[in-house]
Amino acid sequence: MFDHVGIQAADVDAAVRFYTGVLAPIGVVEAMRFPTDDGPVVGLAGSDGEPGFWLSPNVGGGPAREDHLAFAAGSRDEVDAVHAAAVAAGVEVLHEPREWPEYHPGYYAVFLRDLDGHNVEVVTHQ
Prior knowledge:
Shape: globular
Number of helices: 2
Oligomer: single chain
Largest sheet: 4 strands, mixed
CATH topology: 2,3-Dihydroxybiphenyl 1,2-Dioxygenase, domain 1
Strand content: 35-45%
CATH architecture: Roll
Radius of gyration: 14 Å
CATH superfamily: 2,3-Dihydroxybiphenyl 1,2-Dioxygenase, domain 1
Helix content: 10-25%
CATH class: Alpha Beta
Number of domains: 1
Strand order of the largest sheet: 1-4-3-2
């Protein structure tokens, strides 16, 4: 549905470490990096290699607001592996992996809090 999504981070390098570490089980890696006067702008990619998720500096340092980002997983095992990576990294888990029948049968997801307060979901519909 989206060509790409971008969010701002207080510390882009820390955010890159968070996302590439916690989302490694679903293949998220750093794909591109551009220096700017305000700090790096970094594109992360999944298994297709295309940078579809971008992190940029929070220029001006204004208050962050919570965004919701849902990343696709290929299986429940991948969702569980993301949860395990998050727990190992000391990440706040908002909702442990489970099926969410209120959304639809087979909706299986974990919800995490990133370093800038965003609600990060990893979901499979299988």
